Amino acid sequence: MDSSDHHHQQQQQQQGMVGLVTVAGQFHQISQQQHHQHQQQNMATSSTHSDRTGKAVDPKTTRRLAQNREAARKSRLRKKAYIQQLESGKLKLAQLEQDLQRARSQGLLVGGAPGGNSSPGAAMFDVEYNRWLDDDSRRMIELRGGLHAHLPDGDLRAIIDDTLTHYDELFRLKSAAARADVFHLITGMWATPAERCFLWMGGFRPSDLLKTLAPQLDPLTEQQMVGICSLEQSLQQAEEALTQGLEQLHQSLAITVAGSGSLSDDTNMGSFMGDMAVALGKLANLEGFVIQADNLRQQTLHQMHRILTVRQAARCFLAIGEYHNRLRALSSLWASRPREILMTDEGNCGELAY
Fold first, then answer.
1. Which family does it belong to (predicted)?
2. Are 214 and 312 in contact (CB under 8 A)?
3. Which residues have a Cβ under 8 Å from the Cβ of 17 and sit 6 or more positions away?
4. Which residue, of 37, 156, 236, 341, has the greatest Cβ tally within 10 A?
């Protein structure tokens, strides 16, 4: 190769190197421009977020956001629990409605007569009372078994205490029922016909209960006899005061109703409505009489529990349960008696020792 060709080849190589350097520089410049644009986009995004929040996110704001998220989470949990409670309440209400319908179909409500007009509060009490009777039957079986098995006093006392608590629950149910529909309680529509013969202000007369139980509790110590006699005297005084108060309410109510104007006379409408409002106010006092009478009954059971020994108390509660079971059985026999007997002595209630 001559010198001219060699020189020409060197020039071509130099031009190629210059081209490569130029391309590399252009590629580097493009890469720098893209990197710069990406940084600008990030800055714009950060600026937009900063504009949206008004300030940069600091630790305090982060904590507050975390607290808000936690509060929202708890709110969702509370809402979920509330919905579950509603569902549970709906299921319980449906169960009560089924129990009520079953009790009506079996003739357990309204004194053993199927159907009958009653308020929701009265119907609810009837269902709860029938459940209470079922539980009471189980407790009577436990008491009877404990006495026959001669359980130690400690074990027998536990059954007695549970039975007394069970009666406390009955008085709580009756108190709620008195506030819902006092007529349902005071007329004895929740009890069987035979039980109604001996009702006093929506339940048993406490002093009569003592007379009924006395033969079941022998032998009594002298101190026990003194305690029971003192209890009976105080009960009779309280019963007399309540009875007189109820009689006065009856008289006052009768006078108010009898003195009201005639509905046929438009001019007396204002007077009539005023008298009816007064009568309604007096009727509301019936609730207080029933609740006071139930308090007297409840105190009687607690006093007897304190006066008697463990085994005497067991016999006492067993006698109470068996007595009312016999009255309910008597009602069933009365309702199913032959037709020829039904035609005679209709409405004769008879005398029982209660």
1. Belongs to the bZIP family.
2. no
3. none
4. 156
Domain map (residue ranges) of the chain: 62-105, 116-337
Those residues whose C-beta lies under 8 Å from the C-beta of residue 309, and which sit 6 or more positions away, are none
Among 215, 197, 216, which Cα is nearest to 205's? 197
Contact 208, 141 (CB under 8 A): no
Which of 168, 190, 192, 167 minimizes the C-alpha distance to 180? 190
Supply 286's token pair: 């019936």
Give the rounded percent of residues in the chain with a pLDDT score beyond 90.
Answer: 48
Cβ(121)–Cβ(181) below 8 Å: yes
Contact status, residue 164 vs residue 301, Cβ threshold 8 Å: yes
Q: Where are the alpha helices (DSSP H) in 181-309?
A: 182-186, 193-196, 206-217, 222-258, 269-283, 285-307
Q: Which of 232, 228, 230 is nearest to 307 (CA)?
A: 228
262 secondary structure, DSSP code? P
Closest by CA position to 166, among listed 210, 204, 134, 199? 134
Report d(CA 296, CA 99) in Å as an integer.
31
From residue 115, alpha-carbon distances to 130, 189, 332 in Å are: 15, 12, 17
Q: What band does 172 get if pLDDT is binned at 50, 70 and 90?
A: very high
User: Against a cut of 0.85, is the pTM above it?
Assistant: no
Query: What would the mean pLDDT of 170-179 be, rounded to a whole number?
Result: 96
Q: What percent of the chain has pLDDT over 70?
A: 68
Per-residue pLDDT tens over the stretch 114-137: 344 568 989 999 999 999 999 999
**CA-closest candidate to residue 124, choices 76, 173, 158, 167:** 173
| CA 30 remoteness from chain centre | 79
